[in-house]
Amino acid sequence: MSSQPLAKPPVKGWDVGVTVVLLVVDAALAFAASVMGMFLIMASDPCGVRDCSNDLIVLGWLIGMILPWIVFIVTSIVCIVRLVRRKVAFWVALLGAFGIGLALLLAFMVTAAGVPSS
Hints:
Largest sheet: none
Radius of gyration: 20 Å
Number of helices: 3
Order of helices and strands: HHH
Distance between the termini: 81 Å
């Protein structure tokens, strides 16, 4: 009795193409989110006349600058692993785009918590 090695499923060309395009879009989103996060430090401008939490403003700024790239890197790694294992991966890149948006939203919320309303 000879055991035949299991054949790998075929590569899904459409999935590879869509995943690559979505990862490029994710990179552009991470860049745009990081640029927007860079400007969050300007939330400290009115702090001369208000009592602000500089720690929260800086934390929000750092979240806005760094977290979108972390989400992009994790998304890329998971997509590559899924593609190598010949599993559908485009949905991971879609989730990555959503995660980048959530990272920026979190940065806005943390920064806004550091600046009291008037």
